[in-house]
Write a structure and sequence with these properties.
The protein is built from 11 helices and 21 strands. By secondary structure, the protein is of the alpha+beta class. A hairpin with a 3-residue loop joins strand 13 and strand 14. Helix 1 runs parallel beside helix 6, helix 3 packs parallel to helix 4 and helix 9 packs antiparallel against helix 10. The longest helix has 24 residues. The protein starts with 10 loop residues before the first strand and ends in a 10-residue tail after the last helix. The N terminus is likely disordered.
């Protein structure tokens, strides 16, 4: 086990990349904000997150694993066996002392281990008991994912811990509850725990799985071959065990007369945050960033400011990081970034686009045109799909997003990547199309 002493309490830093110059009367200010958490030492303007936990103690955490046990998991029978093995591998990856539970999901949610609404404490004995319980899991019944999430929420809420996390596996569509029921469950769970979601095989609905991960600030992915589940679950749990600070929010203050047009995460994935704002006092709002370990993420902010004359300058926005505090209500993590606006008659300065802003604007468009292109392809609009996916190939090439380019090449024949000239393939493997759709929001970072 790692020793989480005071020397390696997470440190947070904020860096702002922008072109602050606007033409006379210009109003739109764009900036890319990089938030970085490091496990120890001070890097740049990094500031430690104090009082998160006592020196010498690890961050307290609880995890609930939700395993699809619907009837379709028996086709082929190896799928259920792979799911059991993957869950066992994830349990082996738990740190000693972490609370955990396993839920079997069908049209109901059944606690497999430890049961009775409790969480077990990870250790050699409980890990072995959980794996023994997993061996009895069989397939049968329907799929109602909202009930799984609500059961996980009740279990996680019973633990007095900092990090609450879920891992959800499904192989089919959510056919035994309405979309409204699932949305209500996600709304109820949002902000209470984070959740990674995985679809195994090719009979599940991409937008359902990615929607779950998006609402609960987790990751989504496809495991087309069930044999790959154990490795994927192990990586997911290792990442979950690396989380050290929960419920981080980006606090954005803007001056009188300014309007926030959007806030979105742009790396490692594109995630719209604008509508998740909660008010935080005069002209300030908080945007949820989820749980953090040793990592770095990028956010694109766009603020509209009142127009001004040449020579004027103003603070367009102030960015800081906050977390809930049991006594203070909210604790500021100390790291801060400033977004400026300076009006100039220098045409070269005011028309220059910051490289980071340009890069991530392209990455956000890339994710958007892939989704639209695939939707048009499914709807039978071949011309529209060709145009959108051709633009995606062009953007992937221009930004150096080689992984997305490879996925696109399984759906279209690339004639000329630079101009986005493509032809739709006559036959596309369902797993390839679902992989492209599921991973369409993954971005590459700009070289700074």
């Amino acid at each position: 086990m790692a020793n989480f002493s005071k020397s390696n309490v997470p440190q947070f830093s904020v860096d702002v990349y922008q072109n602050e110059y606007l033409p006379e009367g210009g109003r739109e200010v764009n900036a890319v904000v990089t938030v970085t958490a490091t496990g120890g030492g001070t890097i740049g303007s990094a500031v430690a997150a104090p009082h998160l936990y006592s020196p010498g103690e690890g961050p307290s955490a609880a995890v609930v694993l939700m395993v699809d046990c619907s009837g379709s998991m028996d086709y082929p029978p190896t799928k259920m066996r792979n799911a059991r093995d993957a869950t066992a591998a994830a349990i082996d990856t738990l740190r000693d002392g972490v609370r955990f539970a396993v839920v079997a999901g069908t049209h109901l949610a059944r606690e497999v281990y430890p049961g009775d609404g409790r969480l077990a404490v990870a250790g050699p004995d409980t890990r072995e008991q959980a794996k023994q319980a997993l061996r009895k899991l069989g397939a049968g019944g329907g799929t109602a994912i909202g009930t799984w999430l609500r059961r996980a929420d009740r279990l996680l809420a019973s633990a007095d811990v900092a990090i609450r996390h879920g891992i959800l596996l499904t192989d089919g569509r959510n056919e035994h509850e309405s979309p409204e029921d699932l949305k209500a469950a996600l709304d109820a769970c949002a902000g209470r725990f984070t959740c990674d979601a995985r679809g195994v095989g090719t009979d599940w609905e991409v937008k359902e799985v990615t929607g779950i991960a998006s609402a609960l600030l987790g990751t989504a992915d496809i495991v087309a071959d069930p044999a790959g589940l154990a490795a994927d679950f192990t990586r997911m749990m290792e990442t979950a065990m690396g989380k050290e600070v929960a419920d981080v929010s980006l606090r954005l203050w803007t001056p009188a007369g300014a309007t926030v047009r959007f806030v979105k995460q742009v790396a490692p994935t594109v995630e719209e945050l604008t509508d998740r704002r909660t008010e935080a006092g005069p002209r300030a709002g908080d945007y949820p960033l989820g749980s953090w370990g040793d990592e770095s993420r990028d956010y694109h902010l766009c603020v509209e400011v009142p127009p001004a004359a040449v020579g004027r300058e103003m603070l367009a926005a102030r960015v800081s990081l906050v977390i809930p505090h049991p006594e203070k209500g909210v604790q500021n993590l100390g790291a801060q970034g400033l977004v400026r606006a300076v009006w100039t008659d220098d045409l070269a300065a005011s028309t220059s686009i910051n490289p980071q802003v340009a890069h991530y604007t392209g990455q956000a468009e890339l994710a958007d045109v892939i989704q639209k292109g695939l939707d048009l392809r499914k709807a039978g609009d071949r011309d529209g799909a060709t145009a959108k996916l051709g633009r995606a190939v062009q953007l992937a090439r221009a930004s150096g997003n080689a992984d997305t380019a490879k996925l696109l090449a399984k759906v279209v024949d690339v004639v000329d990547a630079a101009t986005g000239t493509v032809r739709l393939k006559a036959k596309v493997e369902e797993a390839d199309e679902m992989t492209l759709e599921t991973r369409s929001t993954k971005t590459v970072r700009v070289k700074k």
